[in-house]
Specification:
about 220 residues, alpha/beta, about 50% helix
């Protein structure tokens, strides 16, 4: 069982998320609050695996709250849902301690996927957030960055030819279903290969995986 808590200043949105989570037998929401003080106070009496924090616009006070919660409850992973797509706010939110970030245009199914992923110890970002992080990473890369770092030295040799093929297709923007159709394999097989790649390379998120692929020239930019 995964235990969640909800923080949202708007009851209507919070109750909608509550209802959606209640349809999943493996997730139990144990706390829903609309103000910071109540959240901090009531979290101490509960086991909470994932805290879902929903904002319209993320302010500096919100960032401070995320930092404070991460320090006070380090075993609780924070998943942020927000409208803001400003690059600086996204980066600051992740640096503040958010393990996941969804934008409000994400599919509702992404919420449970994010919860499972975060509970499993990995980061989870919606597609638009992933694009922001990758663009920031690409913009800060120097032409000689590959030579300056040993972090990715020949690690691609640990991957099978099939895994590299799947990684290339994924880097080209194909979905799991499109990769499966192209290679005449099942979607589950594609997902299994991607999970094995992450495990082999000891990577925590799709952003890390994309960085690896770029640095090892598996995909081009």
């Amino acid at each position: 069982m995964i235990y969640t808590a909800l923080f949202n200043r708007h009851k209507l949105i919070m109750q909608s998320i509550e209802y959606y989570l209640s349809t999943n037998d493996e997730i139990k929401n144990v706390l829903s609050v609309t103000d910071k003080e109540t959240l901090v106070e009531k979290m101490k009496d509960r086991i909470i695996n994932v805290l879902i924090m929903s904002f319209y616009e993320i302010t500096h006070n919100d960032l401070d709250m995320i930092i404070a919660l991460r320090m006070k409850y380090p075993k609780t992973a924070i998943l942020v849902v927000a409208e803001s797509l400003r690059d600086d706010i996204v980066i600051k939110t992740i640096k503040a301690g958010a393990k996941g970030f969804l934008t409000i245009d994400s599919e509702i199914s992404c919420l449970t996927t994010a919860i499972y992923t975060i509970r499993g110890g990995h980061d989870y970002y919606s597609e638009s957030i992933t694009h922001i992080l990758l663009q920031r990473y690409i913009n800060t890369m120097s032409p000689n960055a590959q030579a300056d770092s040993d972090d990715y030295n020949d690690d691609s040799q640990a991957l099978s030819s099939r895994q590299i093929e799947i990684l290339k297709l994924w880097g080209d923007g194909l979905t799991n279903q499109e990769i499966a159709d192209k290679l005449f394999i099942s979607v589950r097989t594609v997902e299994t290969h991607k999970n094995h790649i992450m495990q082999k390379l000891n990577l925590k998120s799709s952003v890390d995986l994309m960085k690896f692929a770029i640095r090892n020239n598996i995909i081009s930019i």
